[in-house]
Amino acid sequence: MGLYDRYVLPRLVDWACSCRPVQRQRTKIVPQAAGVVLELGFGTGLNLPHYDPAKVTKLIGLEPAGGMLARAGEQLRSATVPVEILNRTAEQLSLPLASVDTVVVTYTLCSIPDAVAALQGARRALKPGGRLLFCEHGAAPDPGVRRWQGRIEPIWRVIGGGCHLTRDIPDLIGAGGFEIEQLETMYLPGAPRWSGFNFWGAARPRPGPG
């Protein structure tokens, strides 16, 4: 891990992902989580204050980046739900089959190298009646904005730790073995349009293999 990834990137991500519009998005999704919860991309723990301790019995936070976890100390110390951290990538997820009730993923699918494999692993870990709760940014619906996303993305991936601007979040979720039940979208107020188009909602595991 280089100095940028260890010291600069965690501060940059923490700053960008803790701004007020993004925090408002978290409040729409995270409090719905219940039971044993798997969070893909725990990061610096920004979702922790939004979990409802009356609903969540345990949170399993998946985070491969040591620099992110180093900044999560304060959030972990003040956590109101039991937390277990797994220091591995989402593609390496090896939880027992049907062992979690809810999967939460917020502002993470943009940067996971193989997002479909990560979602497939999360689907296997979900109980049949479980839910995937998601809030992500991605490809905008407007052609002009998408063109700018395509131009900026090569540089942005380097600055933002592999963050993609052009991923089609509903398509990724479908390819990961889920059926979307609820979906809302909008440009976040105050954010650049090339980085601010958000998708959020809930999905269920698609019946059958795969």
For the largest sheet, list the strands in their spatial order: 3-2-1-4-5-7-6
CATH superfamily annotation: Vaccinia Virus protein VP39
Return the string of H and E elements. HHEEHHEEHEHHEE
Mean pLDDT: 92
**Low-confidence runs (pLDDT<50, min 5 residues)?**
none
CATH architecture: 3-Layer(aba) Sandwich
Oligomer: single chain
Distance between the termini: 33 Å
How many independent structural domains? Answer: 1
User: Strand portion, in percent?
Assistant: 25-35%
Q: Number of DSSP helices?
A: 7
Q: Count of DSSP E strands?
A: 7
Tell me the radius of gyration.
16 Å
Q: What does this protein look like?
A:
This protein has 7 helices and 7 strands, in the order ααββααββαβααββ. It has 210 residues and is an alpha/beta fold. It has a single domain, classed as 3-Layer(aba) Sandwich (Rossmann fold), CATH 3.40.50. The protein has a 7-stranded mixed beta sheet, with helices on both faces.
